[in-house]
Amino acid sequence: MTLYAIGDIHGHLTKLRAAHARIDADRAAHGTGSAPLIHIGDLVDRGPDSAGVIAYLMRLRASDPRIVTLTGNHDAMLTRWLETGPGPDPRDPPHVRYLSDKAGGGATLASYDVDPTGPPDEVHEEAVARIPRAHREFLAGLPRWHRAGECLFVHAGIRPGIPFEDQDPEELIWIRDGFLDDPHDHGPLVVHGHTPVEDVTHAGNRLAIDTGAAYGGPLSAVAIEGRDVFLLTEDGRLPVPRPR
Question: Three-state DSSP class for 237?
Fold first, then answer.
């Protein structure tokens, strides 16, 4: 079974279109036209066109049953900020605020022609008015995980040793410590983003595919066959080294 996956997008519509083009070329070369394509989350923030990314993925999902889009921590933060107002949300880490430079939410608002530098209440009111309800409902309805073949797709990771049905939904979009350094088999291969890596990295029990598009890096697309992984390039498939 072939599966495709794309890492954290962060508002980079041009990079996303290019990643889809590489997948389309791979489908044609390998006869994998029916294979699912999973976007690992973090559609928004930091990059220049979060509004365009959401609109593009909404159109694709409406017409293409192969498309799966997960929620990331940034998508959840935007949804919460729109729902609850400019104050901090207790579900988000205390060191991250949506309109801080660290989160990059201002870039998302700018893509909807909202000036993020005004008084917080006014910024929030304008954002609620300008961001289409359909976009908000799309983000709010995104799932936090997807299981297919030998893989479990999730934005950030899982808490090792805990049955999946008992996992904390917040950890699925935020976890790093305790997951990234765990060498044990998780059952399925956990395919995740959230923590940027220089290159797509196969750790045996997990696959990291966020290669830092938010920070000037590439938006990586991969093909997965069982537990073998291939980076999709302009020249075709490039095997990702796997621990033996």
Answer: strand
pTM: 0.96
CB 33 within 8 A of CB 94: no
AA letter at 230: F
Whole-angstrom distance, CA of residue 190 vs CA of residue 39? 14
Chain centroid to CA 36: 15
Q: Alpha carbon of 148 to those of 31, 190, 214: distances in Å?
A: 19, 11, 27
Coil/strand/helix, residue 16: helix
- What CA–CA distance (Å, rounded) separates 12 from 49? 6
Sequence-ordered list of residues with C-beta below 8 angstroms from that of 17, at least 6 positions apart, any chain: 56
**DSSP letter string over 67-120?**
EEE---HHHHHHHHHHHH-SSPPTTS-TT--TTSTTTTHHHHHHHTT--TTS-H
Q: Give per-residue pLDDT as tens, 19-29.
A: 999 999 999 99
Three-state SS letters, 35-77 = CCEEECCCCCCCCCCHHHHHHHHHHHHHHCCCEEECCCHHHHH
What does DSSP say about strands 37-39 and 67-69: parallel, antiparallel, or unpaired? parallel
> pLDDT tens, 78-124?
999 999 877 666 777 766 788 888 889 999 999 999 999 999 899 99
Domains of the chain with CATH codes:
2-239 (3.60.21.10)
